[in-house]
Write a structure and sequence with these properties.
Two copies of one chain form a homodimer. Chain A has 578 residues and is of the alpha/beta class. Chain A has three domains: 282 residues, Rossmann fold; 125 residues, Domain 2, N(10)-formyltetrahydrofolate synthetase, CATH 3.30.1510; 82 residues, Roll (Formyltetrahydrofolate synthetase, domain 3), CATH 3.10.410. Chain A is 36% helix and 17% strand. In chain A, the strands form seven sheets. In chain A, strands 1, 2, 3, 4, 5, 6, 13, 14, 15, 16, 17 and 18 form a twelve-stranded mixed β-sheet that branches. Chain A has a two-stranded parallel ribbon with strand order 7-10. In chain A, a hairpin with a 4-residue loop joins strand 13 and strand 14. In chain A, helix 4 packs across helix 18. The radius of gyration of chain A is 23 Å and the shape is globular. The model of chain A has no long low-confidence stretch (mean pLDDT 95). Chains A, B: It catalyses: (6S)-5,6,7,8-tetrahydrofolate + formate + ATP = (6R)-10-formyltetrahydrofolate + ADP + phosphate.
Chain lengths: 578, 578
Amino acid sequence: MQSVSSDLDIARAASLKPIREIAREAGIHADWLEDYGRYKAKVNLDALHALADRPNGRYVVVTAVTPTPLGEGKTVATIGLSQALGAHLGQRAFACVRQPSMGPTFGIKGGAAGGGYSQAVPMEDFNLHLTGDIHAVTAANNLLAAAIDARMMHEHNYGERFTEITGQPHLDIDPDTITWNRVLDVNDRALRDIEISRDHETRRATRFDITVASEVMAVLALATDLADMRQRLGRIVVAQDRAGQAVTAEDLKVAGAMTVLLKDAIKPNLMQTLENTPVLVHAGPFGNIAHGNSSIIADRIALKLADYVITEAGFAADLGFEKFCHIKCRYSGLTPDAAVVVTTVRALKMHGGGPPVKPGRSLDPAYTRENLQLVDAGCANLAHHIGIVRRMGIPAVVAINRFTEDTDAEVQLVRERALAAGAHDAVEATHHAQGGAGAVTLGRAVMDACEQPNRFDFLYPLEMPIADKIRTIARRVYGASDISFSDKARQQLDRFEVLGFGDLPICMAKTHLSISHDPALKNVPADFVLPVRELRASVGAGFIYPLCGEMMTMPGLPSKPAFTNIDIDDQGQVIGLH
Amino acid sequence: MQSVSSDLDIARAASLKPIREIAREAGIHADWLEDYGRYKAKVNLDALHALADRPNGRYVVVTAVTPTPLGEGKTVATIGLSQALGAHLGQRAFACVRQPSMGPTFGIKGGAAGGGYSQAVPMEDFNLHLTGDIHAVTAANNLLAAAIDARMMHEHNYGERFTEITGQPHLDIDPDTITWNRVLDVNDRALRDIEISRDHETRRATRFDITVASEVMAVLALATDLADMRQRLGRIVVAQDRAGQAVTAEDLKVAGAMTVLLKDAIKPNLMQTLENTPVLVHAGPFGNIAHGNSSIIADRIALKLADYVITEAGFAADLGFEKFCHIKCRYSGLTPDAAVVVTTVRALKMHGGGPPVKPGRSLDPAYTRENLQLVDAGCANLAHHIGIVRRMGIPAVVAINRFTEDTDAEVQLVRERALAAGAHDAVEATHHAQGGAGAVTLGRAVMDACEQPNRFDFLYPLEMPIADKIRTIARRVYGASDISFSDKARQQLDRFEVLGFGDLPICMAKTHLSISHDPALKNVPADFVLPVRELRASVGAGFIYPLCGEMMTMPGLPSKPAFTNIDIDDQGQVIGLH
């Protein structure tokens, strides 16, 4: 990002208000609030019931162009825009964002609280345990995993007499069908391929994923209330029995205990921006094998209290935004009023043919000097994402996240191309360096977009066969010519229809670095067939996820990890987190 | 325990005060308090500094006879006694207890918040995540584990060029010497014996322990402040290099990040008893491979605020109390004024020759009908534990935790035998059924004991050779005739002296079901030689732990786990937790 002071320094210099004051100003009744220290609080679900009759505010989703590996500032834009609306334009505005995984914080990535002068604070809390929700997901996920292996072991040990002795049915889980992995919120590559129960006949190969990849996290994000979460957890399918029938968390009688473990995690976390506007931080499901959006419950509460709710969807419009529409909105019943498409000149230059952008390497001069040709060519990627938003029936506002090295001519060119592609508006934004003041123009454009006609509609009905739903997304969202299935995927597809999972929405699992399935294909790939390697079902969360390529669900630590710089100083303050 | 209403029902019917009110009444300044909802708060370490000049209150440690597998009510006594002192006898009294592991709550054990009318509340919070401290320990432990395997993998991949490329020294960890395990707070037997990194040349066998068995938990419990915790984490030894030198968390440059992960966990958690007296809940290290005592920091804060601090030590006097004296008091510099030895008629009958007591089975009539002969014989066990307390130089008060089926004659007999064995007093207590009112006599006896002459002293100096320290504990605390070392243990002993660990105190790892190393030997085993199978070092926490027998560090789930009864009801309330 631009060269401003370090995010941690800015965050620490900020003048925070007590969270009770933020809550009061935002219309959150003190009775709904559960403090976690002075600057964090959970909002309990009494708020939902008490506010049920209020009309909803405007619902704005933030998405982006296909990013470089550095990211293009979508969280910063979400925070910055909410600061502009709430602190500069006289609106009641909430930002709703995902809780970041702690693993990458100690690996390579650093924090994810926004950045510069558009951050959610205190940033240490945001990037570390917050109020423990991810830990609760870990606990619930792993209790279910332990239940599976313990049940197999006891059924094996007691044999035919298992039911007689324990009064429970023989589940007869087929170990080769187990899809439930254990999870930890740490980058631990050594856990990608492990063998467990090596001291018992039920020994088997399995793996750990990072916690945010757990289906439990997706359930938390998609649940509409506590009872709905309880039902979804019970529906989680962990394996098949030897007769090919689905085995669920309910069958293992563990869904109730999992709900108890998540009874506080279901309450959204209230924090504040650097400009003292409210932020709800809640849930952080993976953006590829899950839907990559923050929670329905947080959005629902915020919509009752705010004029504008700015919610972020993971990755670009082909992924997070499409899933926001077809999965999150499907389950919430909510309809977005507008989408913000964040872009950078840098990303468009990369799509236009610029050299590879790699984390930790200095940028090629193509990115630091004016190059209108690269920008012009790369605007096709922006146009494609605007098209996705338009196809869903809502207005798109392009936010050009401006860096100091970008020239006026480059920004102007992006603006023209965006408008030509059907954007309602396209404006430059400097909220990273200037906070909400840098996003006032963006805020006005978003307010205007929300007054435009809204023809939001889904691209596919749930009753459509699974293959056709996948084909619809591949063609109409990605621009693929067709889709292909491996033999395995085709068998799974048939099996899922038999098991009754056919009516679920689709959650595409593909790379975020290309609109296609191939991360090397930049800009707007054409004439490609999307290959579906495998199909999996998150029946509890409520979606089928086709795997198009290898999905990395457990990151590793680099040779010089970020944790080597993280410590406390003599005053007990955190250093090295950024 | 006695037949009263369920613990959860009693806890829920209790009239709780807001935690800020409990804090105010206990003399905890509002500035030191970090709320976690309405009924929990963390007390930050500003309290320690602000109160440094105040004199300490009386320090009472609660221990017990060798228990049956059902436990004899030590936590209940700790809570009940603090209720008696604080709510009935006009004293400022704090209870300081360990945070229980969540794993067993869902396995077989149920909750551990005390019981009946002597509980720490809200009991759901106490038994579940509380404020996330155990999760923070999990995260810190596993970040270190990931750092070890990632470092080995990168050193393997880069080979000779590792230092040149990354600027870090080649640690050259010998994989066969790694003693650092991963941890989870779940009963997951399948993780006792696993193989990791199966997709890499650094594949190796390892295991998960339950989180409370982590050395990080012991560090949390023994740290005297944040800087001391930072130092201890850095000193943790995880392996040896191929030259036989110790490899530490500091060598891996991860101790700073671990400290950051634990920066909130180091703050004790304030809760309340059913009678609105203050409880500090903090840390819960394993009682066998670690020292099994709550935190030094919680005790230090409480002693500045209270007339009486009642702190619990794990297991019986041969284990938790001995370690309280030789490890916790050694590092804290604090001195206990008296010890309470909790006993039941049931436990003494078992020691006197009664049939085995097993969880989940109904008790033999020997335990439900008067049997003075069994009680009389079993009082030798009580006398032995009184003797341990006396040998440490402080007065012992015996609390006879009375059950409805115990007869007056049985209780009277226990009382006489206790006094004959040198107890300062011995009284019956009915705090389970009656709350603090049932422990008023106990409270008066404890107050009187605290006024007696105190000759507290350690049984061994740190400079004594490791083998002699172990022999001293075996002979003077357990009554063993001698100790023996396996060849492996003898080699490790020599190695530890060379590595400079020789001056650490000893933390015996043995069964809690016998004073000896053999759980089958009840009452007072005689003429036994204590076999030391293996030696390990928790250099960060600060002790050597000799293993005398197999220690179970990862429990399993039974064939019908407790979690099958745990759920939420229609009002969203937890059911089935007890």
